[in-house]
Write a structure and sequence with these properties.
Elements (H helix, E strand, L loop, with lengths): L2 E5 L7 H12 L4 E6 L12 H13 L4 H19 L6 H12 L4 H20 L2 E2 L16 H13 L4 E2 L4 E3 L5 E3 L4 H13 L3 E6 L20 E3 H9 L10 H6 L4 E5 L8 E4 L13 E14 L9 H11 L13 E7 L7 H12 L3 E14 L9 H11 L4 E6 L5 E7 L3 H12 L5
Parallel strand pairs: 1-2, 1-7, 2-4, 3-4, 7-9, 8-10
Antiparallel strand pairs: 5-6, 9-10, 11-12, 11-13, 13-15, 14-15
């Protein structure tokens, strides 16, 4: 069985990175299908090719000559081709792109050309076939990804091509126009290709050696995560942990295909293996990871006998829905409920929302509490171990950090605490110390 291998922009930023990528691919004959991103930054103040293309599109739309606006993009690819010693010219492709820009092609088309051109270069360098993603990845008339048609069409294409490069980030609308996924969408493309190819493994190569237990900007040299389940990854990604595009999980999860996050610059590192399920004993630590986000608000409501008032929660949630507010968490008591929401969702409508809630549910007490941060402690081993929550609370108590909210799902996969934003970084550090440093 084959492996699908996706390389991020930093992995393909210049010719030297291309050479590293080729060496990785050639080291394993099962790495048959390659999904490249557009070239990323070569150094700190560099500009990603995708951003150059967005800039080019804006300049051409404003009336600037295409050749001048496109020059920085052209120079990036021509430099890579020259330094790799390839007998390849992208001149015809540049002409097609220029004609499309002048004819009013949309920004999705413009942005997608980074992956498209990079795919052509990488395929030529590897000696693989090039498959335009627009020929096998499709969106419906509403702009939503069409998984069934994509899986059938792309699967049929790949069945006839033992080795191929399929650029990430984009596909085609029913009318043939180009549509891109959200930023980071090459991760999703890799997952889609893995499912269509019936791959045994989806390798996602980037510039880090997998997931870390905590944010390295907060915790000094945090431990790595060796194995994580899809469910744990969803919990951590939702709470702000990066590395992998969140939507990339679903196609491979439905096909029970594991994902291995690897480092292009340290290929011997094991990285992080993401699996459908894992035995509790496979976890090195009791918890798998810690993640969190700031800028939350709690809509706090108190009302006597609230729990026996028929339709109370439905009416409250309907008010929030009508104002376009999505509840993140809803810890409740007999006579109280706190609805935790993104603070930005309240912008410009606090007064109207407050009045509407008072009119509809008639609370005894109502207030909006700002400045909250949420931290999720996630781990599949927590459900079989007693005292996990106690240890979380003890760590925060010893650090004199006040807990404003507690929420634990029925799966016992995570514990979420709400704290003041000012305590956010320290809270993550003390929880890390409690569960990781104390166990090493």
């Amino acid at each position: 069985m084959s492996k699908v291998v996706k390389f991020g922009g930093s992995s393909l930023a210049d010719a030297n990175q291309f050479k590293k990528v080729a060496e990785i691919i050639r080291a394993d004959e099962e790495r048959c299908y390659i999904v490249p991103s557009a070239p990323g930054k070569r150094f700190k103040d560099d500009t990603k090719v995708t951003d150059l293309l967005y800039q080019c599109h804006e300049r051409v739309s404003a009336g600037e000559d295409f050749a001048k606006a496109f020059k920085p993009v052209r120079e990036r690819y021509d430099e890579i081709i020259k330094e790799l010693g390839l007998k390849l010219s992208l001149e015809d492709e540049y002409v097609k792109i220029g004609a499309a820009f002048r004819d009013g092609a949309n920004s999705d088309y413009a942005a997608s050309r980074g992956e498209y051109l990079n795919g052509i270069v990488l395929a030529n360098y590897l000696g693989y076939e090039f498959v335009d993603a627009a020929k096998g990845i499709f969106f419906d008339s509403k702009g939503e990804f069409d998984g069934d048609i994509t899986n059938a069409c792309l699967g049929a294409i790949l069945e006839k091509k033992p080795r191929a490069v399929i650029p990430g980030f984009y596909g085609a609308m029913p009318d043939g126009s180009i549509k891109t996924f959200s930023r980071g969408g090459s991760d999703f493309t890799g997952s889609v290709v893995a499912k269509a190819a019936g791959a045994k493994l989806y390798e996602n190569w980037t510039d880090v050696s997998g997931f870390l237990v905590a944010d390295p900007r907060i915790v000094d040299k945090p431990a790595g995560i060796e194995v994580i389940t899809y469910s744990e990854l969803r919990e951590l990604s939702y709470m702000g942990a990066g590395v992998l595009h969140e939507d990339a999980i679903f196609p491979v999860r439905s096909a029970n295909i594991p994902i291995n996050i690897k480092n292009t610059n340290a290929p011997s590192d094991p990285g992080t293996l993401i699996v459908p399920s894992a035995d509790d004993m496979s976890a090195k630590y009791l918890i798998t990871g810690i993640a969190g986000k700031k800028e939350f608000s709690a809509i706090s409501i108190e009302k006597d006998r609230m729990n026996s008032e028929n339709g109370f929660m439905r009416r409250l949630l309907q008010v929030l829905e009508n104002h376009g507010i999505f509840p993140e968490h809803m810890p409740t008591g007999i006579d109280t409920v706190s609805v935790v929401v993104n603070s930005h969702d309240l912008d410009g409508q606090r007064e109207k929302l407050t009045q509407r809630i008072r009119d509809v549910v008639r609370p005894d007490h109502f207030e909006i509490i700002d400045g909250l941060a949420l931290i999720a402690v996630v781990g599949r081993g927590m459900k079989s171990k007693k005292g996990t929550a106690t240890r979380v609370f003890a760590a925060l108590s010893h650090a004199d950090i006040n807990i404003r909210m507690i929420d634990q799902g029925s799966s016992e996969l995570n514990i979420i605490v709400g704290i003041d934003e000012k305590d956010f970084e320290n809270a993550i550090r003390v929880i890390y110390d409690m569960f990781i440093l104390s166990e090493e």
